[in-house]
Write a structure and sequence with these properties.
About 65% of the residues lie in helices and about 15% in strands. With about 325 residues, it is of the alpha+beta class. The strands form 2 sheets. It has a 5-stranded mixed sheet, covered by helices on one side. Strands 1-3 form a two-stranded antiparallel sheet.
Amino acid sequence: MFQIILAVLAVLECLVIIYLLFIRKNKVIKEVTYDFNNQINSLKQRISELKLQKHESKEQNKQLENKIKKLEEKIAVIETINNDLTKKKKELAEQKYKLEILQKRKDELFAIAIHDIKNPLAAIKSYLELLESYDLSVQLQYDIIHSMMESSDQIFRLTHEISEIMAQDEAEYTLNLEEISLKNIIDSVCNQNAAYAKSKNVKLINKTSMNVPKVLVDTDKLKEVVDNLVNNAIKYGPAGTSVHIITFFTNKSVTCEVSDDGVGLSEEDQKRVFIKGEKLTPKPTGNESSTGLGLWIVKTIIEEHKGKVSCISKLGSGTTFRFELPIRPV
């Protein structure tokens, strides 16, 4: 009987333990469930917040995209304006450069024309002095008057050229080319400067070849070249000396040399002889004026004809100026 009671008690004790374990398990489950539910609720709330933030971010992104689009449109407009301004700046720079070149060219052509008026004027003055100083034959008087008319025509041409230069929108250096014998040009220039040479007691010796071939040149411009060289040789030639003009040729070119018996040029002067406005050491023997443009004009015109010009000189031994022109058309 006692054993039965112990067995019942043991069973009851097991039941109590099982019950207590069950109660504890339910409590734990409830606690876990509560925590889980709290976490789920917290996650739901966080998800809601994130959705709200996502929506707000989308709105902000949309606003930013609109702002970026407007900025890009403004940048495109600014770039277009900048390109237009750059283009206009370039066009203005080109126009400025062209105007500067135009003005420089006009100044050069104007200087050439003004300078070359001096020589025919000086020739007319010398012829007038010759007419007054000597008992001349009728034929010689006629020759002098004819030369004076040629000089007057040259002055008229040069003044007309100045008027054209002033009126030009584009100062282009145009050559009126024609085939002509260099001898004809040299003979004309020597006749024009004969009185000037006589007034300075300088002998003008024209040794131009009769057989010199024709060249394709601007006759008036080439006369300016020869006139400047011959006039300069007389201007700087001491009394009692000579000026020689000779020509020679090959199958490709014609060369003219104008030589004087003057004081010659130093090596330093020879380096500067064709530079515009340079005044060299030798002085005109008759106190004539000098602008330093004559030889620069010679070089300019000869190079426009695709020719070459040079100077050969030595102190105390005179000077020779030489220019060479192609026989073939320029």
